[in-house]
Amino acid sequence: AGIVTGAMLKRHALEMRQYAFNTAMGLLVYYMFFFMVFVGAWASVGEQATFGQTLSQVVVGLMVWVLALQTFGETANRISGEAVQGTLEQLAMSPLGLGNVLLCRALASFFIQLVYMLIFLVLMMATTGRWLHLDLISLVPLLMLTMGSIQGIGFAIAGLTLLYKRTGAVAGVWQFVFIALLAVPVDKLPYAPALPLAWGNHLIRRVMMDGASIFALPAGDVLLLLANAAAYMAVGYLAFGFFERQARLRGVLGHY
User: What is the per-residue pLDDT for 199?
Assistant: First the structure.
């Protein structure tokens, strides 16, 4: 699995370098989107004393949202791409199994997107003038666990893609669901830790806005995030396996 993850990481890096224009344009599009949100927040809040705190929340929320979109769409998009190229069945014949290959690819993609996101974050902070606390030792594991729940949902959608081929309409709805999850007031809802994204975003805010370290966070809070990620990943992976078996039985695994 480690060799496969390393190979996938190298492939992602080569693709980003080979298609440097597309990589740069993707960063530019996300930056322009953020800039429009930033202008909207400034128009709404103005010069009130709470502007700095609100702006910091916008920066953190956008960072988590963009990373969630990338994580969520990675597996399903790759399934569609491999099916179009006619290489999906080759991946399915791997000794690791299709699900494990995609899991290694998702892990490699996460680290690439994390580098991509750090560049995006620096641009955001430079625009807003709000330089947040960047403790990578705390942020990387929290982001990994937070994206674990999103990856679980992404696996379930990828399984549907194996069976029904085109699931863009279903996947498109989730980008708005993610916005709602990021806005959940976790201190007022006792079931918030059970939701994907919400609890992780809460802990990431505590690190980036309050300067807390992951070691200073209550152990129970981190364990809740770990349990959340594990539960969604397990359910998503099992759902993917179910849909993969159905696709094989119907003989549509490699069709598009």
Answer: 93
pTM of the model: 0.84
Give, for 126, the enclosing helix (H) or strand (E): helix 98-128
- Alpha-carbon gap, residue 146 to 70, rounded angstroms: 13
Q: Cα–Cα distance between 236 and 154 in angstroms, integer? A: 7
CB 241 within 8 A of CB 69: no
User: Which among 184, 214, 215 has a CA at the least distance from the CA of 201?
Assistant: 184
In angstroms, the CA 103 to CA 82 distance is 15
Q: What does the alpha-carbon distance between residue 2 and residue 250 come to, in Å, rounded to a whole number?
A: 32
Residue 120 Cα distances to 57, 129, 202, angstroms: 16, 14, 20
Placement of tokens 């809740």 in the chain: 224
Determine the residue type at 201: N
**Closest CA relative to residue 76, chosen from 95, 98, 114, 102:** 102
Q: In this predicted model, what pLDDT tens digit does every residue of 117-131 receive, in sequence order? A: 788 778 777 876 767
Closest CA to 150 of 228, 238, 57, 63: 228
Instruction: Rounding to the nearest 10 degrees, give the CA dihedral for residues 113, 118, 124, 127.
Output: -140
Given a contact cutoff of 8 angstroms between Cβ atoms, the answer to whether 147 and 67 are in contact is yes
Q: What are phi and psi of 95, to 5 degrees?
A: -60, -25
DSSP code of 211?
Answer: -
Residues 24-75 pLDDT 10s = 887 788 778 777 776 676 666 554 434 444 667 777 888 888 889 888 877 7
Residue 20: CB atoms within 10 Å: 10
